[in-house]
Amino acid sequence: MIFLLPSLRRRLDRFCRDTTGGSVIELAFVLPIIALLGVGAFDFGSALTEGNRVEGAARAGAQYARVNSAVEDHAGIEAAAWAEAGDTSLVVTPVYYCLCSDTGAASQPCNANCSSGDPARRYIEVKVEKVWAMTFDYPGLPSSMTLESSIDMRIN
Asked: Tens of pLDDT along 139-150?
């Protein structure tokens, strides 16, 4: 049997029954989880915001192509997309194509008539991509992802 001094034994008993520091210990366990959830919510919100910017950039590029449909202005479409997003790191890819209204089949070249004799309708597809990096690395998730949007619009 272990012999303890009476004063030491009283202090040890009082320490074992004391609950005043319990909330600090609980906070020490819960605070990292709450911080991780907060940072994750911030990253998710940032990804949604950037996704909306990418979509708006694709829409702005397609609208520019529609307004300036007389020429295929790839540089102007790219500039309109960059201006809308406020970001020149976007990869903007405009593709012009034609479809026949009677069959829906692609017409090559665009200045040819369809089988019905009607001229082919011109369309543009503006695809915008951006590589978005997360604020922190999360286990099991990639550290970056590609956000992309594609808009198809008839231009004449």
From this structure: 888 889 999 999
Q: How confident is the model at residue 135 (pLDDT cuts 50, 70, 90)?
A: confident
What is the per-residue burial (b if ≥16 Cβ within 10 Å, else e) of 7-25? eeeeeeeeeeeeeeeeeee
Q: Which amino acid would we find at residue 109?
A: P
Least Cα distance to 43 among 136, 131, 154, 121 occurs for 136
Strand partners, 7: none
Write b or e for each residue in 58-96: b if 16 or more Cβ atoms lie within 10 A of its Cβ, otherwise e: bbbbbbbbeeebeeeeeebbbbbbbebbeeeebebbbee
Confidence of residue 1 (pLDDT cuts 50, 70, 90): very low
Alpha-carbon separation of residue 127 from 25, 89, 147 (angstroms): 52, 14, 11
